[in-house]
Structures are given as C-alpha cells and as structure tokens.
Amino acid sequence: MKLFFVAAFLAVAAAVPSSYKPEYKAPSSPAPNYPAPKYPTTSYPAPAYPAPAYPAPAYPAPAYPAPAYPAPAYNKDNKYADITITSQSDERNLDGSSQWSYAQSDYTTREESQVQKKMQGVTYDSYGKESYGEVLGNTNKGSSYWVSPEGQKFTLTWAADEAGFQPKGDHLPVAPVHEYELPVAPVHEYELPVAPVHIPFNGKGYKIY
C-alpha cells in the first residue's frame, strides 16, 4: 500500500513540467502615517548695544558789533521843557464809573468822568441778529483849560450821551441863524356854485311834495 502512494506521487511529479514556477504576490500593506515631529522654538535674547555717545559740537559765539546810535539833539529853546505835572488823580469804581484829572505847571487842566447808563440802542445776539432795545452804555462829561502859545486862554466843556457829543466853548464856531418869514399860502375868495333844484310834476301840472 505504501508503495502505491509513492508510485502515484512520483507519477504526478513526472507529469508536472520542469518550467513551472509558483507565483507569489507581494503583500499590500498600507503606508504608515507618522506624525510630524515637533521641535521646540529656539528663543534668543535681543542683543543689547550700548547707546553711542557723540560729543556736543562746539560753535564759536558770534560777535556782533554794538550798534552806534546818534546822540539825540534837543532844542535848548523849547519853552515846554520845564512843564511838569502839578496834580493828578485817577479813580476807577466797581460799578463801571470813573473820574480822573490832572493839572500842569503851565496852567493846563483837564478833568473827565463817566458813568454807565441804561439807554435805547441796537444790540446783537450770538447769531448776529440785530434788535433794538435797552442797552447799557457809558456817558461822559468833562472840561479842559489851556493857554495857547499866543497867550489866548481856552475853556472847553463837553458831554457825551445818547444825544451824541455836545461840546461848548467860546472859541467854537457857531452855526449861523437864518431869520426869515415863512411864506403864507394865498387865499382864494370865490362864490361856490349852487346846484339847481328840480321840482317833479305828476304829469298833470301838479307839483309833487
């Protein structure tokens, strides 16, 4: 029996061609997926450079020649050179009023005062709109006295308020006064016409009253 199996195996081996080679297939394995390696970030300290030190430039100081001004020439014959202030006052008040005066050695004097007063005038609001009403204004009055180089004496007084500037003085020109008779309209004398009177009739010769 054993001989039979050996003979059968030999017969099969003899029947297989000598060129037969077994075919092997390479195993197909998936490509491995490796995570990307993580490397630590290198941190370098910022380099510290010393601040450069530059020497301050030295500029020579400019030399300017001193200006030469001519000496003022005063007129020795000036007759006003010896005039001095003999008295003076100046007062300012919290209510807006004030008064001041002065007198000189040549007899010239002046005094002036002002006060605030409510009056009618034009005002403007913050938008520039014009309106007419009560405003607060300054009134002024004063007087002055002086002597001209020819020896003539002058006195001037004035007032300034809502009526304007009103100076008074004997040396001021005066407007001429024209005196004339006003013309009289002519009088026409004539007799007024009389309207005619119509007396109606009734058509039979009788008047109708």
Automatic annotation (TrEMBL):
<keyword id="KW-0193">Cuticle</keyword>
<dbReference type="InterPro" id="IPR000618">
    <property type="entry name" value="Insect_cuticle"/>
</dbReference>
<feature type="signal peptide">
    <location>
        <begin position="1"/>
        <end position="15"/>
    </location>
</feature>
<dbReference type="Pfam" id="PF00379">
    <property type="entry name" value="Chitin_bind_4"/>
</dbReference>
<dbReference type="InterPro" id="IPR050468">
    <property type="entry name" value="Cuticle_Struct_Prot"/>
</dbReference>
<protein>
    <recommendedName>
        <fullName>Cuticle protein</fullName>
    </recommendedName>
</protein>
<keyword id="KW-0732">Signal</keyword>
